[in-house]
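Title: Comparing notes on inverse folding

I've been comparing how different people in this forum approach sequence design from structure. To keep things fair, I'm posting one structure and asking everyone to reply with a full sequence. Here's the target:
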């Protein structure tokens, strides 16, 4: 059963799906046990406030997908590529990268709830790796939280000008990268998906 932090009713179940085509394995010299990984991750999430998540945990989950992201920022990202943080990623030819969707969490409590569930799933994955085995350099998986956790925004090109369509998101995509110097996973991003 997932860890719950918000005041809403507890979720009865959650489903996790690995996005297998994105896993790249790397040899590992020494495997941190699931217990020490668990305490390390709990140390990062106990008392964590959503607006300090990126600074403390790394990545860009809060800056780009936090509950503070406005509809206007989603609209701008879908039309120009400019992220809520003001960054405009570009292709090698210099043109902006325009995403097909943009999403944000409904609340800081939902954001932290999904982060804690993601950390628990990472702990479960680590427990299944044998000593001397391999860890993936990048771990990507989806968590189905059953109830809405945020909103997906997508341009609806059936009208002129294109309007932004909003739908409830019940899943989250989670991406961790292995820091090979510390043998610990660091959060890259976490965002709502359909």
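Reply #1:
Here's my take.
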């Amino acid at each position: 059963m997932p860890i719950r932090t918000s005041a809403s009713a507890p979720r009865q179940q959650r489903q996790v799906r690995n996005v297998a085509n994105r896993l790249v394995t790397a040899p590992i010299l020494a495997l941190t046990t699931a217990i020490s990984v668990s305490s390390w991750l709990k140390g990062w999430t106990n008392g964590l406030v959503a607006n300090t998540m990126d600074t403390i945990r790394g990545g860009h989950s809060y800056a780009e997908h936090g509950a503070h992201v406005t509809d206007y920022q989603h609209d701008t990202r879908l039309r120009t590529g400019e992220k809520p943080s003001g960054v405009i990623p570009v292709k090698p030819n210099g043109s902006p990268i325009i995403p097909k969707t943009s999403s944000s969490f409904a609340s800081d409590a939902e954001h932290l709830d999904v982060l804690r569930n993601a950390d628990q799933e990472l702990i479960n994955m680590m427990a299944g790796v044998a000593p001397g085995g391999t860890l993936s350099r990048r771990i990507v998986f989806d968590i189905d939280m059953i109830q809405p956790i945020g909103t997906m925004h997508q341009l609806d090109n059936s009208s002129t000008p294109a309007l932004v369509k909003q739908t409830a998101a019940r899943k989250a995509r989670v991406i961790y990268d292995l820091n090979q110097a510390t043998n610990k996973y660091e959060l890259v991003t976490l965002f709502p998906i359909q």
